[in-house]
Design a protein that fits this description.
- The complex is a heterodimer.
- Chain A has 8 helices and 9 strands.
- Chain A is globular.
- Chain A has a single domain, classed as P-loop containing nucleotide triphosphate hydrolases (Rossmann fold).
- In chain A, strand 8 and strand 9 form a beta hairpin.
- Chain B has 3 domains: 188 residues, no CATH class; 253 residues, no CATH class; 179 residues, no CATH class.
- Chain B has 20 helices and 9 strands.
- A 6-stranded mixed β-barrel of chain B has the order 2-3-7-4-6-5.
- The longest helix of chain B has 54 residues.
- Chain B starts with a helix and ends with a helix.
- The chains are: A alpha/beta, B alpha+beta.
- At the A-B interface, helix 2, helix 3 and helix 4 of A face helix 11, helix 18 and helix 19 of B.
């Protein structure tokens, strides 16, 4: 198995002159192809900073990131945009669907941008929608469907172009518990059946319990790692234990 | 901290937000001040006649009305932007009354500041415009810098009233909305634009019918003109509300191009943009059409002056002559070597009552040899009448249209003797100057001589001098020699025409420019407003890997259509209007129309580029 993500000695420092604030310090992280990895940590631990740098939206102060063997730090803006378009898939907390496009159009957007042939676009659009159970609402607009359906649309958009790595940033943050469970179920199936590599950033222990491996970050450094052994329930209680040890803002996790 | 000091801080800290609104206020004031300062300028007052004065007044009222609409519009954008801020004040515990008073003060403070700046800037520019005004009217006057208290007072009064209304509107804002609405002002849900095919076709048909009718206006102008206007205006709104939406929706069906690259984004955004801006865009199309027509026509009329003067006033001077007048006139001519006499011709003619098919008019009968003498001087085609019973009729289309060639004309002299002639040809000229409007009938010399024995001919003397456009002194001198109404001159006709046409050109051009700048600014405001709303969408696109240059290209494309559609429709409307007017006015407006459209398009292009730039700065910022 090859590595889709290889992070070495990653450093990020915010601020200028005198008041430097280190957000990330010496992070090492690997994700193998077909892994489903969770990143957890309390607010302010540096989860989002890490995600932004892997998403190539932000640039690191030190260290290196390699995605699918390529180094985004060496790319210019045009190259970065096309890199994000081809290699990465994004799922955001607030869905980030375009409300002027139908569900179908939102899903196929990455393929359209990549100038794929129309017949191919339509075929893959339908297949992906089928996989996520949203094939009945393809002609509706985002504001006409539920939050869970919107997030599944976003997930479809993130996977349709078969990216090397799917980045999910608190994807269940704006969903009710039923929709959350459905979405996570979908992500789990994507990972198991299609071998999609997923990195899920969350502070919700329930969401994290769907992952197969979890990295905990605290104050900008790696705190510990958990690997799923038994059932999801057991894994869930283990996660809670780690969070208790980590301390911080516990109320978030209950 | 008093309410007033919060207000002052608001303006100081949020200058960026306020700037556009403030700028449109200053602009309106500058324009109005310039216009009124021309109206009250002493030098202008001395130079112009009653008609011109009236037109200036009409012009300044139009400017005031337009300013009020323009400012109201920019104010509504401005307040929409700030609803959230107002909601926040309420949430923080300010009473509604206090917030309302704060908004009222704010508007008033800005209004007064705009008045100061506007009048000062207007004062600086007013001299330039007074000069332009004189130049267009053909006067070469040394213009003095003048500040007119009357104009200042007028401007202050008019704009204080406008500010009061706008401030009251802002004042009432808070009472009209619930707190919740104020917070959600910027995120009203988009609905899918729908359009009916029937409505689309009907609106298209309405415009075409309007155009066709416009070219048959001569038939019944009073009834048809308003019908044409109504058809075209209703059609234009329909066009934007359904036809455009329909066409764009259709293009979405064509997935082979729609699903390629940024087309997906550009086309679907454009659909929403056209739909939500339909009324505005149609209004702008109609305003553009009106402006282009007004500018094209006033420029055309101004441009036409030499052609029309030469047709209507072929001679520098024409007077009822006798031996003593001729002598005095010749002496006067000798005293003005800058206007040497080029040609002099004595035109004798017999006045007769003429009956043409469907018409009964006074005719001037002249002999063939006299007409050919005049024709030689003026470079017209000569006539050749072969038979004694034949005649050639001479009149311009401005006098009356009519096809009398091949028809009979019967003449009746003062002694009631009658005779009949056969009209064999027509010449499109005027025999003498405009004030002696005669339709002439050219007869064979011996026929004329025969008639002249029965009735004594009248005699006019017509002169052509060099530099007739600069014959002010000579014209004045002749005015002293010749009794009033016994003569006329090219020069005084020319000056009267220059004043009227120059005035028309000035008012038409000025108003056109103002409307052009205002409509350009309104599209600009509106698009920036949309840009704020779409910021997040473009952020999403950048995150999923759309490059900045692709977004830039998509914005350029979307805005191009937003600017192009109303402009094209406006050009089409004005073209139809000007061509049908030219048809009515018997002149060609093609050159002036093309020049006007070119200038208009150029200014529009500038607004387009400006909007693209600002739009990009909002939704596509540099890292």
């Amino acid at each position: 198995m090859s590595k889709v993500l290889e992070v070495r000695n990653l450093k990020k420092v915010y601020g200028a002159r005198g008041t430097l604030y280190p957000a990330l310090d010496n992070i090492d992280l690997d994700i193998e192809e077909g892994e489903f990895v969770g990143i957890m940590g309390p607010s302010g631990a540096g989860k989002t900073t890490l995600l932004n740098m892997i998403a190539t939206i932000d640039r690191p102060t030190g260290g290196s990131i390699r995605i699918d063997g390529a180094d985004p730090a060496k790319m210019n803006e045009e190259q970065l945009a096309s890199f994000r378009r081809n290699k990465l898939g994004f799922i955001f907390q607030d869905f980030n669907l375009l409300d002027t496009l139908t569900i179908r159009e939102n899903i196929i957007l990455p393929l359209a941008l990549a100038q794929v042939q129309v017949a191919e676009i339509e075929r893959r659009g339908y297949e992906t929608a089928l996989m996520l159970g949203i094939e009945d609402i393809l002609n509706k607009y985002p504001y006409e469907v539920s939050g869970g359906q919107q997030q599944r649309t976003a997930a479809a958009r993130a996977i349709i172009h078969k990216p090397s790595l799917i980045l999910a940033d608190e994807p269940t943050g704006a969903l009710d518990s039923k929709s959350s469970a459905e979405l996570l179920q979908c992500l789990g199936e994507l990972n198991e059946r299609n071998g999609a590599s997923i990195m899920l950033v969350t502070h919700d222990a329930f969401a994290a319990s769907y992952c197969r491996r979890i990295l905990f970050i605290k104050d900008g450094s790696l705190f510990t790692e958990l690997i799923k052994g038994g059932s999801r329930k057991e894994f869930f209680s283990k996660i809670l234990d780690v969070l208790a040890v980590m301390g911080g803002d516990n109320r978030d996790f209950i | 901290m008093t309410l007033f000091s919060i207000t002052a801080r608001n303006i100081k800290k949020n200058f960026q937000n306020y700037f556009l609104y403030f700028f449109s206020m200053v602009f309106s004031i500058v324009v109005f001040y310039i216009f009124t300062s021309i109206q009250y300028n002493d030098q202008v007052a001395q130079a112009i006649g009653e008609t011109t004065r009236f037109m200036l007044k009409v012009g300044s009222i139009s400017v005031a009305v337009f300013s009020a609409i323009f400012m109201g519009y920019s104010n509504s954008f401005f307040t929409r932007k700030r609803k959230k801020e107002i909601g926040l004040y309420c949430l923080l515990g300010l009473q509604k009354r206090q917030v309302a008073r704060m908004l009222f003060y704010e508007n008033l403070v800005m209004g007064i500041a705009a008045l100061f700046i506007g009048i000062a800037a207007g004062g600086l520019f007013s001299k330039l415009f007074v000069m332009l005004f004189f130049r267009l009217m053909g006067h070469f006057v040394q213009v003095y810098f003048a500040i007119s208290p009357q104009a200042i007072l007028n401007t202050i009064m008019v704009f204080l009233i406008i500010f009061m209304v706008i401030s009251l509107h802002a004042y009432s804002l808070i009472y009209r909305f619930k707190l919740v609405d104020l917070f959600h002002a910027e995120q009203s849900g988009e609905t899918e634009p729908k359009a009916s095919l029937i409505l689309a076709l009907v609106s298209f048909a309405l415009i075409v019918t309007g155009y066709v009718l416009a070219f048959h206006l001569t038939a019944n102008f009073v009834l048809l003109a308003p019908t044409v206007l109504a058809l075209v205006i209703i059609g234009s709104y329909g066009l934007f509300h359904s036809f455009m939406v329909f066409v764009i929706r259709l293009s979405r069906k064509n997935t082979s191009s729609y699903y390629q690259g940024m087309n997906l984004i550009s086309t679907s955004n454009l659909l929403y943009r056209i739909k939500s801006n339909a009324t505005l865009l149609a209004t702008i199309a109609i305003l553009s059409a009106t402006t282009l027509t007004a500018m094209g026509m006033s420029y055309g009329i101004y441009h036409d002056i030499n052609k029309s003067m030469n047709l209507h006033n072929p001679f520098s001077f024409v007077y009822w002559n006798n031996a003593s007048r001729d002598q005095k006139v010749n002496q006067a001519l000798a005293r003005y070597p800058q206007n040497p006499l080029l040609h002099a011709v004595e035109i004798g003619f017999i006045s007769a009552r003429g009956t043409l098919p469907g018409m009964n008019i006074q005719l001037a009968l002249i002999p063939e040899s006299k007409y050919n003498e005049i024709a030689q001087i003026k470079g017209w085609d000569e006539v050749n009448i072969s038979k004694p019973e034949d005649a050639v009729i001479v009149h311009s289309d401005y006098d009356f249209k009519g096809k009398f060639v091949g028809k009979k004309v019967s003449l009746e002299l003062e002694d009631n003797t009658k005779s009949e002639f056969h009209i064999t040809a027509r010449r499109h000229n005027k025999l003498t100057n405009n004030t002696n409007t005669w339709t002439a009938l050219v007869l064979r010399d011996e026929v004329y001589e025969h008639l002249a024995q029965a009735q004594k001919p009248y005699s006019l003397r017509a002169l052509v001098v060099r530099n007739q456009k600069n014959s002010k002194e000579l014209t004045a001198e002749l005015g002293k020699i010749l009794p009033q109404y016994s003569w006329n001159s090219y020069y005084s006709e020319y000056m009267r025409n220059m004043e009227e046409r120059g005035m028309l050109m000035f008012v038409g051009g000025f108003l056109g420019l103002v409307i052009l700048l205002a409509t350009g600014s309104i599209i600009y405001f509106r698009q920036l407003n949309d840009a704020q709303k779409e910021k997040l969408n473009y952020q999403i696109l950048r995150n999923i890997g759309v490059s900045r240059s692709e977004i830039n290209a998509s914005i350029r494309k979307q805005l191009l259509y937003v600017f192009l559609f109303p402009l094209l429709l406006g050009i089409a409307h004005s073209w139809a209007a000007l061509m049908s007017l030219a048809h009515l006015m018997l002149t060609s407006l093609v050159t002036s129309t093309i020049i006007t459209i070119a200038v208009y398009t150029l200014v529009y292009l500038f607004y387009y580029l400006l909007t693209v730039k600002s739009y990009n700065r909002i939704v596509n910022p540099e890292n």
